[in-house]
From TrEMBL, chain A:
InterPro entries: Dimeric_a/b-barrel, YCII
Family according to the record: Belongs to the YciI family.
Domain YCII-related: residue ranges: 14-96
Pfam families, sorted: YCII
Domain of life: Bacteria
Protein name: YCII-related domain-containing protein
From TrEMBL, chain B:
Pfam families: DUF6596, Sigma70_r2, Sigma70_r4_2
Identification of the protein by name: Sigma-70 family RNA polymerase sigma factor
Statement: the UniProt record of this protein carries the keyword Transcription: yes
Family, per entry: Belongs to the sigma-70 factor family. ECF subfamily.
InterPro entries with a match to the protein in the record: DUF6596, RNA_pol_sigma-70_dom, RNA_pol_sigma70_r2, RNA_pol_sigma70_r4_t2, RNA_pol_sigma_r2, RNA_pol_sigma_r3/r4-like, TPR-like_helical_dom_sf, WH-like_DNA-bd_sf
RNA polymerase sigma factor 70 region 4 type domain segment(s): 121-172
Superkingdom to which the source organism belongs: Bacteria
Domain RNA polymerase sigma-70 region: 28-87
Cross-referenced Gene3D superfamilies: 1.10.1740.10, Tetratricopeptide repeat domain, Winged helix-like DNA-binding domain superfamily/Winged helix DNA-binding domain
Positions of the DUF6596 domain: 190-290
Keyword S-adenosyl-L-methionine: no
Keywords for this protein: Sigma factor, Transcription, Transcription regulation
Length: 110, 425
């Protein structure tokens, strides 16, 4: 199965106190174990732009799609046999990036 | 006339057999199917269907020599039909072929049955599910209760409970919650959730809800004990598993003494202690002693077991060591500062310091426990002992209204009516 590990940023606690190299080490481990699909950190939500072409012409709006205290700060896509394996990975991911992490399975992968 | 009577008699006999087979085989059949099909929904529906077929078939053809095997086979065929139907509709042909191949393999060895049920238990009590969902799912899948029964037990609408169960099953499937007993390293962390669920199942059996339900559902208390034994076997070092087992045994030991012949609750102080199951008491005491000897700080189940050990140690209610009971409740309050624990502690306080002191403590819990029958029942008893009959009557009324247990209602009603006949205000 493929799981999305979402790194939850928090505007109330914006200090990044993840240990230097901890995320790199975690990424290397995912690759060594054959669990790595893709991952990366995102820049600040204020760098986001929302596009809406539902009415024909695209309309571009500055800012993220939802203004909230918590935001998407980064993610991993991993392969894991089941939720227990994904949960164990997410525990290490949360430790490495010092953020909360949400785990969600993909409904389908192209 | 005679024929009609015979039919009624035969039907009653069959009902009894069906109830027993349901109790004994439900979890086994669900667990076996869930493992084979990897889908709780399929397992549950197919098992329910198999029981429905059994009701009709066994009435005409008689009960088969091995009802469990008959049900497993029937449910397996129902499940296979459904999976084939759905896989056709979803055009997931490849998966269907794989599944069919898998199913054509050798049947599960009988010796794995206990493990199957333990797997089912750990799946239903997975920490990725909300606690209410874990309890509901365990009662449905492992305990075999209907959604309506579970809804009633936990005082929610049947539709709410149905959604809870459906959602939990969907998450197990979609999120990939595995179908297995966790690895040894993960067991201690996972055990707490399982014990919570088992204790809730036990309590629902011990103080069953529903005016038309047996006041005690021995099949639920028995099931909870059986599963807790399994957990303890799996984790002999886990103090709380031992504590919960001891607590259940010491409570179960008093089960038959707890409801009178005419279906009324008999309180601890009024129980015929000779009717207590000495084997269960001895086993419970041995577990409590074992935990004490370990020297490790006890968790809440171990403290609750110790409280019950004090009660079951006394040959007569008057010999109860209430100061020890109160001291244990003090310890419990530190571990679990919930209003329900505070309420139980006040009952011990009433014995030590009198009903007046206890009532003040109980009254302080009015806000969090306003909807809890035991709060009003305790209050009613204390008010009665203080001679405040009119207030006691009001508290009994409220307790009767909130109690879902037929034996407790009978007891509370008699107590209330005694106030009347005694000429209380």
């Amino acid at each position: 199965m493929h799981y999305l590990l979402t790194v939850i940023g928090d505007t109330d606690n914006s200090a990044d106190d993840s240990a230097p190299g901890a995320i790199d080490a975690f990424n290397d481990r995912l690759k060594d174990e054959g669990r790595w699909v893709f991952g990366g950190g995102l820049t600040d939500p204020q760098d986001a732009t929302v596009t809406d072409s539902r009415n024909g012409e695209p309309v571009f709006t500055d800012g993220p799609f939802v203004e909230s205290k918590e935001f998407l700060a980064g993610f991993w896509v991993v392969t894991a046999d089941d939720l227990d394996v994904a949960l164990a990975l997410s525990a290490d991911a949360s430790r490495a990036c010092h953020r909360k992490v949400e785990i969600r399975p993909f409904g389908g992968v192209a | 006339m005679t024929d009609a009577e015979t039919d009624v008699g035969a039907a009653a006999g069959l009902d009894e057999v069906l109830a027993r087979v349901h109790r004994e085989e439900w979890a086994r059949v669900v667990a076996t199917l869930a493992r084979r099909f990897g889908d709780l929904d399929v397992a549950e529906d197919a098992t329910a269907e198999a029981f429905a077929v059994a009701v009709e078939r066994w009435r005409t053809h008689g009960v088969p020599p091995n009802p469990g095997a008959w049900l497993t086979t029937t449910a397996g065929n129902k499940a296979l039909d459904r999976v084939r139907r759905e896989s056709g509709r979803d055009a997931k042909q490849r998966q269907a072929h794989m599944l069919t191949d898998q199913l054509a393999g050798p049947p599960e060895p009988a010796g794995a049955v206990e493990d199957e049920r333990l797997r089912l238990l750990f799946t239903c009590a997975h920490p990725a599910l909300a606690v209410e969902a874990r309890v509901a799912l365990t009662l449905r899948m492992v305990g075999g209760l209907t959604v309506a029964e579970i809804a009633h037990a936990f005082l929610v609408q049947e539709t709410t409970m149905a959604q809870r169960v459906t959602r939990a099953k969907a998450k197990i499937k979609a999120a990939g919650i595995p179908w297995r007993v966790p690895a040894a390293a993960d067991l201690p962390a996972r055990i707490d959730g399982v014990l919570t669920v088992l204790y809730l199942v036990f309590n629902e059996g011990y103080l069953a809800s529903g005016a038309d339900t047996d006041p005690v559902r021995a099949e639920l208390t028995g099931e909870a004990i059986r599963l807790t034994r399994l957990v303890r076997e799996l984790l002999p070092e886990d103090g709380e598993a031992a504590g919960l087992l001891a607590l259940m045994l010491l409570t179960e030991a008093r089960r038959t003494a707890r409801v009178s012949a005419d279906g009324e609750l008999v309180t601890l102080d009024q129980q015929d202690r000779g009717a207590w199951d000495r084997t269960l008491v001895a086993e419970g005491h041995a577990l409590v002693r074992e935990r004490l000897a370990s020297g490790r700080p006890p968790g809440r189940y171990q403290v609750l077991a110790a409280i019950n050990a004090v009660h079951t140690d006394a040959a007569d209610a008057r010999d109860t060591d209430w100061s020890q009971v109160a001291a244990l409740y003090d310890q419990l309050v530190r571990l679990d500062p919930s209003p329900v624990v505070a309420l139980n502690r006040a009952i011990a306080v009433a014995e030590l310091d009198g009903p007046h002191v206890a009532l003040a403590q109980v009254d302080a819990l009015a806000t969090p426990l306003a909807g809890y029958h035991a709060f009003h029942a305790t209050r009613a008893d204390l008010l009665r002992r203080l001679g405040r009959s009119a207030e006691a009557r009001g508290a009994y009324d409220r307790a009767i209204e909130l109690s879902g247990n037929s034996a407790e209602m009978a007891y509370l009603t008699r107590r209330r009516d005694q106030l009347g006949s005694a000429g209380g205000r």
